[in-house]
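Cross-posting from the chemistry board since nobody answered there.

I work mostly on the small-molecule side, so proteins are not my area. We synthesized NAP and want a rough idea of how it might sit in this target. Sequence and SMILES are below. Is it possible to get a predicted 3D structure of the two together?
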Amino acid sequence: MKIGVLGSGVVGQVLADGLLKHGHEVMRGSRDPAKLQAWRTGAGPRAQAGSFVDAAAYGPLVVLAVKGSAAVAAVEACGKALAGKVVLDTTNPIAEAPPVNGVLQFFTGPGDSLLERLQARVPAAHFVKAFSCVGNALMIDPRLPGGPPTMFICGNDEGAKRQAATLVEQLGWEIEDLGAAEAARAIEPLCMLWCIPGFRQNRWGHAFKLLRAP
Ligand SMILES: NC(=O)c1ccc[n+]([C@@H]2O[C@H](COP(=O)([O-])OP(=O)(O)OC[C@H]3O[C@@H](n4cnc5c(N)ncnc54)[C@H](OP(=O)(O)O)[C@@H]3O)[C@@H](O)[C@H]2O)c1
């Protein structure tokens, strides 16, 4: 599949490299595409780089991996290029203020989530939350005791979630679909929980798994 990846940071790179590894064609986007040229050169013939709009327009599925506070502006800048696209939203609404005793601060409050804000700003796109509550080192083909960890996803479009789930499973995860966009109010704070052992004890090698009764 052709997949656009909006993001020049580490998450954009890890997911772009993982998608290439699994056989996809990838275009990464940045406000400054020049800074992606070294990556493009090293990543091979199925890798391309362009603007955010170029990457949004590239294929039927788009990964959003930009700074949380810039996410609304980034998707608005893509405008019509995101219409009808499945948008895998990895972002977290992390505030500028530092963590408190290892607990990240968010700029969203209760009854709110970044995914819902994005969906409201670009109603023609189909946002699906994924990858927001695991560190980038474990995003692709995680190998942990107990088998594949669980990726919690949500979004308003069932077809978009099916496409997202197929892709995330290919990258080594099992899926738990938590329903519509409002479930992001529960998924996004898992990022805070995930980071606490890291900030307090420098332990970053974990992921969530849902244990189900048979
Ligand atoms: N780091 C992790 O392990 C991890 C894990 C799970 C989820 N996440 C989430 O994934 C997202 C990406 O994280 P990251 O660590 O890769 O990088 P990041 O530093 O949070 O974001 C870098 C990207 O944000 C864009 N950006 C920054 N300010 C902008 C602005 N004012 N307007 C438009 N775009 C702007 C940059 O655009 P340019 O390319 O134009 O500079 C760049 O593409 C974040 O929302 C983060 O919370 C991170």
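Reply from a structural biologist on the board:
Welcome over. Reading the output above for you: The longest strand covers residues 2-6. Residues 67 and 91 are 7 Å apart (CA to CA). Happy to explain the token format if needed.
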